[in-house]
Amino acid sequence: MIGRRKYLSTRAEQKDKAIKDAATKLFIKNGLDGVSVDDIAKAAKVSKPTIYSRYKTKEKLFVAILIGECEKQIEKMFEPRGDKQTLEDFIYKKAFEYISFITDPWYVNLLRNAIYYSGHFDEIGEAFLRFGPRKGVSKLANSLAVEIDKGELKAVDPSDAAEFIISRSKSNCFFNAILARTLENADEDIKVEAMKIKKEFLLLFKA
């Protein structure tokens, strides 16, 4: 009986992944308006009732994808500093990883969709803010609070310190990505931006 339940659970997870993977590709390529549930079902090789049993509308599916991907990336990016990692390297890495994330074409396309459709579907805009930038600040603040407790950083509100890194990351590299400007040395530009953020952060917050 347990084996049967595990099999059904695995099958359900596989179908859900297929739906989300197919929908993500279609949303990025055609936008929310340019994709129907029929399109998603065909691409995912599942039935429409299977999709509707999980997501009442394609907008609900879009929100689920947005939340899931933002949470996954942010959890990975904002882990606490390792024992062998210097504070300087830690701050640089957080800035570099966050800029790389928000300038990735996949994220930029989802962001454009979220901004465009948030005026029609409040849930999309709220989900993006709650599980994107806000979640990033909250997660990073937890890591920085540890550094404050250690005496490595000044006794400031860790959310303010985290907000500094997040807000400074939305600079030239981010706006170039949003405006679809192709740059020859994008990786080098991100490194330069991250280094600048690290220096400014340490000047303001290092104990």
Molecular structure report:
- The chain has eleven helices and no strands.
- The protein is 78% helix and 0% strand.
- By secondary structure, it is mainly α.
- The longest helix is centred in the N-terminal third of the chain and has 29 residues, at 2-30.
- The chain has two domains: 9-55, Homeodomain-like (Arc Repressor Mutant, subunit A), CATH 1.10.10; 64-205, Tetracycline Repressor, domain 2, CATH 1.10.357.10.
- The radius of gyration is 20 Å and the shape is elongated.
- α1 (2-30) packs across α2 (37-44), α1 packs across α4 and α6 (105-118) crosses α7 (122-131).
Using brief descriptors, characterize the structure shown.
Tetracycline Repressor, domain 2; Arc Repressor Mutant, subunit A; 207 residues
At the first level of CATH, the class of the largest domain is Mainly Alpha
Query: Low-confidence parts, pLDDT < 50 over ≥5 residues?
Result: none
Average residue-wise pLDDT: 81
Q: SSE order, as H and E?
A: HHHHHHHHHHH
Helical content (DSSP H or I, runs of 4+): over 70%
- Classify the oligomer: single chain
Ends apart, CA distance between termini: 59 Å
Q: How much strand content do the residues show? A: under 5%
Question: CATH fold name of the largest domain, please?
Answer: Tetracycline Repressor, domain 2
Count, helices:
11
- Shape category: elongated
| Gross CATH architecture of the largest domain | Orthogonal Bundle
Q: Tell me about the biggest sheet?
A: none
Radius of gyration, rounded?
20 Å
What is the total domain count? 2
Structural class: mainly alpha
Tally of strands: 0
| Relevant CATH superfamily of the largest domain | Tetracycline Repressor, domain 2
